[in-house]
Design brief:
Number of strands: 2
Low-confidence stretches: 88-97, 262-270, 400-415, 421-482, 534-545
Largest sheet: 2 strands, antiparallel
Strand order of the largest sheet: 1-2
Distance between the termini: 65 Å
Mean pLDDT: 77
Strand content: under 5%
Number of helices: 29
Structural class: mainly alpha
Radius of gyration: 32 Å
Helix content: 55-70%
Length: about 550
């Protein structure tokens, strides 16, 4: 192993070949030799070595199980991707396909898929643990489905269904095989299996889609329409909204909510979502809360409708409530930036205890990517443990602005407060002058720019070096552009963090230092004058600044 890691591949392979010859029933030697061949891109030779090891191993232990899984996984990739797939220990890469006919390529793939199915079955037989057996049987079924051997796949999925009766996936896979066979009598069997799957989990949209295909074959128009409606209904609801039963009334409301984006393919409403949102806002039930959360999660429309939905959730989301839990899940499972922004704002207004750690975990992403409103949420929340984190994110050298008597104390205090907030130290960092130019007041920044221009003129005097280093100059231009982008990003980050400090924590001493650093002490004084002593701004006050 050490020889192989050191780059002595041939030596390592020769050593393992010798070990295999001396100890022909020692499975670990076969496994390691196969791994070396796979690392070198010789996957067929690796599979041959593993097969030999499985046959000659004295004990059918975990190593043999691992070799069976390695053979099966390798053959499955080859069968899916074709002969142009190169597989190494680092993963799969594109390679040159074999120069055979289409029929030969098909035969090549089928052989490997068949072998993958065989070794997945062997691996499943070598373990008694259900958590290991389930994925092996499932992948065996996948191989057989890709071979269009639906009879064999039905046998495998039937076995899985018996072993795991509470897992609807086995029933769905079994039903899909019955549908694919499209033989006389299979439609009835498939329908029965799908209905059983829906008793386990009535929210499985795949089951309704398969039933739609079955009823289309049987020309059952009413059942087709019902399945399409149910599929659209449950597709609109995220997994964490599980208290909304399907009924005509809920479907009508959901159709109105989805009308803004056209996400409902069946039963689209002629009116917009505002009427539905107003009705749901007046209904305090968990079901109405989840419908509002589903509307926000799907991000059906920007503007008034989405703001009204978040406002309705905010009004019923004190800490520990079902609506507060929905807001947290909207953040955890978000698909759109606006969803995070609205949910964090609502949690901050309600002073939810989960809001601070959640916002701090998202702050770095918020400052680098799209504006998710995390700094605004921290300002509304008003928890002073966020102050040192905001200051640290601004990348300012505030220690130099403190008096000689208190030098370093604020940094230590920020460190302690940051530990309380997030568990890790995020003390104020001191940045290099080149990086801090964006944080300088305008006059100092202009002086820095003048210094840069002087140095540029000195370098331009040497024309011979400029000609010789033309390529290097092009690289410098690229680096300069990247530096400019970084400075713009840093400037935006600092503006947003400073705004949050001034809005939410106007009396904090670190806020005063940050405002002085940017020459905005007079603005801060005006905010302090309008702020009650020892109190932070509320959400309405924040929005008015």
């Amino acid at each position: 192993m050490q020889s192989f890691a050191a780059g002595k591949h041939k030596r390592a392979v020769l050593v393992l070949c010798s070990a295999v010859a001396d100890f022909p029933d020692y499975a670990p030697a076969y496994y390691m030799l196969g791994e070396f061949y796979k690392h070198l891109g010789q996957v067929d030779r690796a599979c041959d070595v593993w097969k030999t090891g499985c046959e000659k191993a004295a004990v059918k232990d975990a190593v043999v199980l691992r070799m069976c899984k390695s053979i099966a996984a390798t053959r499955l990739v080859q069968g899916r991707e074709g002969s142009g797939a190169l597989i190494t220990s680092e993963g799969m890469a594109a390679g040159d396909a074999t120069t055979g006919s289409e029929a030969e390529e098909k035969e090549w793939r089928e052989f490997r898929l068949r072998e993958a199915a065989v070794f997945y079955e062997k691996a499943a037989c070598l373990t008694d643990k259900e958590e290991y057996k389930a994925p092996l049987l499932a992948k065996q079924g996948v191989c057989l489905v890709q071979l269009h051997d639906y009879d064999a796949a039905i046998t495998v999925y039937t076995q899985g269904r018996k072993l795991f009766p509470d897992d609807a996936n086995w029933a769905l896979d079994l039903a899909s095989c019955h549908v694919a066979r499209a033989k006389e009598g299979d439609a009835t069997t498939a329908a029965a299996v799908l209905e059983e799957a829906l008793t386990i989990n009535p929210r499985r949209t795949e089951a309704y889609e398969l039933l739609t295909d079955l009823y289309t074959l049987q020309d059952q128009t009413e059942k087709i329409a019902d399945c399409q409606k149910r599929a659209c209904f449950f597709r609109f609801l995220p997994d964490f909204c599980c208290n909304v039963p399907y009924c005509q009334a809920n479907f009508a409301i959901l159709s109105q909510l989805a009308a803004a984006s056209g996400t409902m393919a069946v039963g689209e409403a002629a009116v917009g979502p505002m009427d539905a949102i107003k009705a749901l806002a007046g209904d305090p039930s968990d079901s109405s809360s989840e419908l509002l959360a589903a509307f926000c999660w799907n991000h059906c429309a920007h503007g008034v409708a989405e703001e009204a939905a978040f406002a309705a959730l905010e009004a019923r989301a004190p800490p520990g409530s079902h609506a507060a839990d929905l807001l947290l899940k909207l953040v955890y499972h978000h698909r759109h930036t606006c969803t995070v922004k609205g949910a964090c704002h609502a949690l901050a207004v309600n002073k939810d205890p989960h809001c601070l750690p959640l916002c701090l975990s998202l702050l770095n992403e918020d400052l680098k990517e799209h504006n998710m409103g995390i700094t605004d949420a921290l300002a509304i929340l008003g928890d002073e443990r966020a102050v040192p984190v905001l200051v640290n994110a601004m990348k300012l050298d505030l220690e130099g602005l403190s008096s000689e008597d208190s030098e370093g104390e604020d940094t230590e205090e920020a460190e302690e407060e940051s530990k309380d907030a997030g568990g890790a130290s995020t003390a104020v960092s001191v940045v290099e002058p080149e990086t801090a130019i964006v944080a300088l007041p305008q006059k100092e920044a202009e002086e820095a720019d003048d210094d840069d221009s002087d140095s540029d003129s000195d370098s331009d005097s040497d024309s011979a070096e400029a000609v010789v280093g033309e390529d290097e100059n092009e690289e410098d231009v690229v680096e300069s552009n990247e530096s400019t982008d970084d400075e713009e990003l840093t400037g935006d980050m600092q503006r947003r963090c400073l705004a949050a400090l001034m809005r939410g924590f106007p009396t904090h001493k670190l806020t005063a230092k940050a405002a002085a650093f940017f020459g905005r002490s007079s603005e801060l004084a005006a905010v302090q004058a309008a702020t009650p002593v020892a109190a932070t701004l509320t959400g309405s006050q924040t929005s008015s600044l």
